[in-house]
Amino acid sequence: MVGGLVKTLRPHQWVKNLFVMAPMFFHKDLVTKINGTDFLNIPVVGRSMIATGVFCLLAGAVYTINDLADVEADRLHPVKKNRPIASGEVPEGAARAMSVGLVVVCLGLAWLLDWRFAAIALLYFVENLAYTFKLKKVAYLDVGLIAFGFVLRVMAGGYATNVSVSGYMLGCTALLALFLGFGKRRHELASDNAGKTRSALEAYTPGALSVALALTGAATTVTYVAYTLDPATRVFFNSNYLWLTAPFTLFGIVRFLFLVSGRAGRGLKAESPTQEMLRDVPFVLNLVLWVVVILVIVYRLRPSP
Predict the structure, then answer these.
(1) How many helices (H) and strands (E) does the chain have?
(2) What's the gap between Cα 147 and its chain centre?
(3) Do 298 and 185 share a structural domain?
């Protein structure tokens, strides 16, 4: 049963909570100089990692509550019927106890870290409860709430590390999250019994979602490019080369479109687009290269002589 409980927390989805680290990553606080030598900024990195861990476990509690609420609908889904609660691997009582315990522990840790971070974490949890029990049934609002959750992650990361979050970062986060959310709905719409497993899907059409994906994908790319070319950004990072990371962003968006449309060569086999991305070698390689180029530019990394 322990393995089933862990699976219910959906660790593969926790990659989304890396957005909590974004403020630290883009604010040059990952590395600090001591006597002219670069070192990891342990206090900032530690607080950011704790904050990310809190959101991972809090998200796990939300996923568990969601599975408890959707257990009957999940049993009708060709893939979701194999989830631990829907399949009977994990008793509903054990899942409830785990979710309550995680929420109490996470909010307690969040308060010890920073009261503002705790307030955002609580808002994230309440928003997800509203989404789970009511608002996920409202088409387009459901995706908007998913995007709001990503914005809350970035804000939480800023408060946890005492880093100011720029409007560009919040804008890029919101647009990218909308893009990913519409991609998830496009992915779900392609499955059998889509309307029975998520009622909001009845209001979506492939054509409308294709337009939404195109618009949000383009807006995300344009906003990111504007951020890299903004004079304030260039002054802050003391570099004119951040725009070199834009092609990686564009490739990631285009590749995601191929994945959710089933045109990447293997169809829609995973339960979610997140799983599709993590299994896709070109997407993961592109993400790694983007991170490397960012580190080189932001932290002016050079090979040792």
Answers:
(1) 15, 2
(2) 9
(3) yes
Instruction: Look at residues 164, 195, 225 and tell me which one is the last residue of a structural domain.
Output: 164
- Whose CA is closest to 22, among 127, 180, 151? 151
Q: Which range marks the domain in which residue 302 is found?
A: 166-305
Per-residue pLDDT averaged across 14-33, rounded? 78
Contact status, residue 274 vs residue 260, Cβ threshold 8 Å: no
Of 134, 164, 194, which residue is a domain's last?
A: 164
190 and 124 within one domain: no
C-alpha–C-alpha distance, residues 8 and 10, integer Å? 5
Angle ∠(259,7,126) on CA atoms, nearest 5? 85
Regarding whether 264 and 156 lie in a shared domain, the answer is no
Take residue 123 and report the two structure tokens written for it: 């808002």
| pLDDT tens track for 214-233 | 999 999 999 999 999 999 88
Q: How far is residue 199's CA from residue 188's CA, in Å, rounded to a whole number?
A: 11
Domain count, the chain: 2
- The beta strand positions in 164-248, using DSSP E, are none
Residue 124 pLDDT more than 90?
A: yes
- Strand locations in the chain, DSSP E? 31-34, 37-40
